[in-house]
């Protein structure tokens, strides 16, 4: 069944990689679709991530949701109170490791 699709092939690969890391059986469809669309609408040709077994879906969707928040959520440095983007693991201001404070 289809789990995820995105016009951005990079995002699709990220999802595929994420599922691989968690040993969820999956594969990509329409990987090379753009540029060879023929009569199909662009929507039909988006790269897609498919899972072999629908019972993986809840777990896979949770992982994808986590991936999305992990890259966008900001955090505040516990040392200097600077706010950092979610893609930084250490504070860009003072070098303090972030996201350790879960009070
Ligand atoms: Zn800091």
TrEMBL record:
UniProt cross-references to Pfam families, sorted A to Z: DUF2007
Asked whether the keyword Zinc-finger is assigned, the reply is yes
The UniProt keywords, alphabetically, are:
Metal-binding, Zinc, Zinc-finger
According to the entry, every stretch annotated as the RanBP2-type domain falls at 75-94
Q: Which domain of life is it from?
A: Bacteria
A GO molecular function assigned to this protein is: zinc ion binding
Q: Does the keyword Membrane apply?
A: no
Task: Identify this protein by name.
Answer: RanBP2-type domain-containing protein
**Native species:** Paraglaciecola polaris LMG 21857
């Amino acid at each position: 069944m289809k789990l995820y699709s995105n016009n951005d092939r990079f995002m699709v690969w990220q999802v595929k990689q994420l599922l691989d890391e968690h040993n969820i059986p999956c594969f990509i469809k329409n990987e090379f679709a753009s540029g060879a669309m023929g009569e199909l609408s662009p929507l039909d040709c988006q790269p897609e991530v498919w899972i072999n077994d629908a019972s993986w879906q809840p777990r896979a969707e949770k992982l994808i949701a986590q991936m999305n928040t992990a890259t966008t959520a900001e955090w505040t440095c516990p040392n200097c109170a600077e706010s950092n983007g979610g893609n930084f693991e250490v504070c860009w201001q003072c070098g303090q490791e972030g996201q350790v404070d879960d009070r």
